[in-house]
Design brief:
Keywords: Periplasm, Signal. This protein is an alpha/beta fold and 411 residues long. It is built from 18 helices and 13 strands. It has helices spanning 3-8, 12-22, 24-32, 40-54, 82-92, 113-118, 129-132, 151-159, 162-175, 218-226, 236-245, 255-260, 286-290, 294-323, 334-337, 347-357, 367-376, 382-390, and strands at residues 61-66, 97-102, 124-128, 177-182, 185-186, 188-191, 212-214, 231-233, 250-253, 269-272, 277-278, 280-285, 341-344. It has a six-stranded mixed sheet with strand order 8-7-9-6-10-13. A five-stranded mixed sheet has the order 2-1-3-12-4. Strand 7 (212-214), helix 10 and strand 8 (231-233) form a beta-alpha-beta unit. Helix 2 (12-22) crosses helix 3. The protein is globular, with a radius of gyration of 21 Å. The model has no long low-confidence stretch (mean pLDDT 92).
């Protein structure tokens, strides 16, 4: 039995009782360290052990981490690395930093965690860059269509010192956010009940004219419009019913998001369009980081590096073994159990989509945003810089084989 399923067997009442005894963060961090079948006694022991380690000394700094809708269960599906980061940072600093993990949308959600970090309600947050772009528009720099040819290219860019100059430093200066690490997937279309009885999608023209829910990304809308995918803003609470009832044909997101957010029961096909980033990232307030002692700043960066390396391997494994985003599909995975068919498009179809909507082949629709982002970055050509960095590795590089690097150090 997968750990995510085993943990789901613990009742909310028991989880609340343990949280009252040891604190929510100790329960979540303890649960995140467990593997295999999880029982209430084993979870209690893990929570107690974690509590004793965390509270062995008084911390110099207690950091609130607003983790949107994440919890110990769904972080075993989409491996965003948040718990690993928090646990390692506490251990690495020997308790000088304590992290209070606040998930399940208790303190902030996907759309407003960024703003609550900027205003000091929380000190760091985890959410997708696309949903965070409303409060930090420079994050749109990751969302040019087909800028990244693969998940490997995404990881390579995040490890590259170029990410300091093109992504991280402008984000710090303009929005007061320090980009720590991120999971990497590429967005596709998650088709609902209207596609349940249709053959598995093999050509992009089969998607033309469909009506699809779009998230908060401004650049993603440009790509969808150019691909004739009719982006429509739909509230999250209405999306699942819309897919089930056929009011919308699909929704743009990535595979593990479908699995962790419980979309699988209403998704029939997961079309791997790969058209722009799906990046569940963790950032912190620059103001809070700058107030730390130098050795604690170093510890934060090293823990972020560890989390990035963990995510790179763990999420690639989870896509196959937990989510079921593979062909053939493993039995017992979330997609297999919910009859979600992955639709992997041939290279010629991806190339056709790229030529329709990417700045490389169709620059005019992107010109205004490109000029704006370039200005915010101090005049560099953001698209070209990231595009070139993403292609420094062979196109067939596997994501798990990308060489990790400490991006904040010079090459």
């Amino acid at each position: 039995m997968k750990a995510s399923k085993a943990l789901a067997g613990i009742s909310r009442r028991d989880l609340f009782r343990l949280s009252g005894q040891f604190g929510l963060s100790s329960v979540v961090l303890g649960a995140g360290a467990l593997t295999g079948a999880v029982s209430l006694p084993s979870l209690a022991r893990a929570a107690e052990s974690t509590y004793e380690k965390r509270f062995a000394k008084e911390p110099k700094h207690t950091l609130k981490l607003g983790a949107a809708g994440f919890n110990a269960r769904n972080l075993l599906i989409e491996r965003a690395g948040v718990l690993e980061f928090a646990r390692d940072l506490e251990e690495r600093t020997e308790g000088e930093i304590r992290v209070e993990f606040i998930g399940d949308n208790q303190i902030c959600g996907q759309l407003n965690c960024v703003e609550k970090t900027q205003t000091g309600v929380v000190d760091m947050y985890a959410a997708s860059t696309q949903n965070s772009a409303g409060g930090a528009p420079y994050l749109n720099v990751l969302d040019y269509a087909y800028m990244f040819p693969s998940r490997a290219a995404q990881y390579h860019f995040l490890y590259s010192p170029a990410s300091q100059r093109v992504l991280r430093e402008p984000l710090e200066k303009r929005h007061g956010l320090k980009f720590l690490f991120s999971h990497c997937e590429l967005r596709g279309l998650q088709m609902g009940n209207n596609f349940a009885d249709k053959p598995t999608v093999t050509k992009i023209e089969e998607l033309f004219g469909t009506k699809n829910r779009v998230t908060g990304t401004q650049l993603g809308r440009i790509a969808m419009q150019l691909l004739n995918l009719n982006p429509v803003p739909v509230a999250w609470e209405e999306t699942l019913d819309g897919l089930k009832q056929g009011l919308i044909d699909g929704a743009e997101t990535w595979a593990s998001a479908v699995a962790y957010a419980n979309m699988s029961p209403v998704v029939s096909q997961s079309v791997d369009l790969k058209f722009f980033c799906g990046t569940e990232h963790t950032s912190m307030s620059v103001r809070v980081f700058d107030a730390m002692e130098p050795h604690l700043q170093d510890a934060i960066m090293e823990s972020a590096y560890l989390a990035q390396v963990h995510v790179q391997a763990a999420n690639e494994a989870a896509l196959v073994k937990t989510v079921g985003f593979s062909d053939p599909q493993l039995p017992g995975t979330i997609f297999a159990e919910n009859n979600v068919r992955p639709a992997f498009l041939a290279d010629d179809q991806i190339k056709m989509a790229e030529e329709m909507c990417s700045p490389e082949f169709n620059p005019e629709p992107w010109a205004q945003w490109r000029e704006r982002l370039n200005g915010w970055a101090g005049g560099i050509d953001t698209y070209q810089e990231i595009y070139d960095t993403a292609r420094e590795i062979p196109i067939d590089t596997l994501p798990e084989n990308v060489e990790p690097r400490r991006w904040w150090r010079s090459a």
